[in-house]
Design a protein that fits this description.
The protein has 230 residues and is α/β, with parallel strands linked by helices. Helices cover 49% and strands 17% of the residues. It binds 2'-deoxycytidine-5'-monophosphate. The site of 2'-deoxycytidine-5'-monophosphate (DC) has 14 residues, from helix 2, helix 4 and helix 8.
Length: 230
């Protein structure tokens, strides 16, 4: 009874994965792992090291730089989530910027980086009792996860949610910019050679264009309770 399981949530950018994951982690006292934040961290390092501005942008030049960095994860009891520290600096807010968002898809295409981050996620989740969101979790990182959810929503609703989010953080962006960025990220996510975003056959699909968070949770909680009894 109440065995610990892995809940994998994949889906499009700004489709509400983290909102759902956080609510599930709170209800079932599961740890929440936001795998996108790992890719964002690497993108932030690349920006700070001006990798994208140089002609030298290639993996051979970038990977050794990563080895010099100290990355630490600390469970934040209050948010039930990991805080990421880069050389001692808490970068939780910085990795959410529009600047990072514009570059992160490029980082997510690099096989060596995906490989390292996949191992990191498997290590963090080895004791189960986690809810983890991303793009390749159900298909690749945790293919045996007990519950897989795939999330989508119209481009308009996702752009609007993201726009409001960035505004709240004080970022100067227009709705149109956000929409373009999301379309670009969707294309990069689904057309990537390695671990592209793809609904796995054994996942539950949620299209939340017209669904409230309560409606989504009511549905998902039933599935989780069922899975944990087995
Ligand atoms: O979920 P997010 O928007 O924070 O993800 C940031 C980027 O990282 C996004 O462009 C896709 C990529 N990503 C990925 O390729 N694989 C994952 N498991 C999670 C995120």
């Amino acid at each position: 009874m109440n065995q610990k399981i892995i809940i994998a949530i994949d889906g499009y950018s700004s489709s509400g994965k983290s909102t759902l994951a956080k609510a599930i982690s709170k209800k079932f006292k599961y740890k929440y792992i936001d795998s996108g934040s790992l890719y964002r961290t690497i993108a932030l390092i690349a920006i700070r090291k001006k990798i994208f501005d140089s002609d030298l942008w290639n993996i051979r030049n970038f990977i050794p730089i990563l080895k010099e960095m100290s990355l630490k994860f600390k469970w934040n009891q209050k948010s039930n989530q990991i805080d990421i520290f880069l050389n001692g600096e808490n970068i939780q807010q910085k990795i959410r910027s529009e600047q990072v968002e514009n570059k992160v898809s490029l980082i997510a295409q690099i096989p060596e980086i995906r490989e390292k981050l996949t191992l990191m996620q498997r290590n963090i989740g080895k004791n189960k009792g986690i809810v983890i969101d991303g793009r390749d979790i159900g298909n690749y990182v945790f293919p045996k996860s007990e519950l897989k959810i795939f999330m989508k929503g119209s481009i308009e609703i996702r752009s609007y949610r993201r726009y409001l989010d960035l505004k709240k953080r004080g970022e100067e962006v227009s709705y149109e910019e956000v929409r373009k960025n999301l379309i670009h990220r969707d294309i990069m996510d689904i057309s990537r050679n390695i671990s592209p975003l793809k609904k796995s056959v054994d996942s539950i699909e949620i299209d939340n264009t017209f669904l409230s968070i309560e409606e989504q949770l009511n549905l998902i909680f039933k599935f989780i309770k069922n899975k944990r009894k087995k």
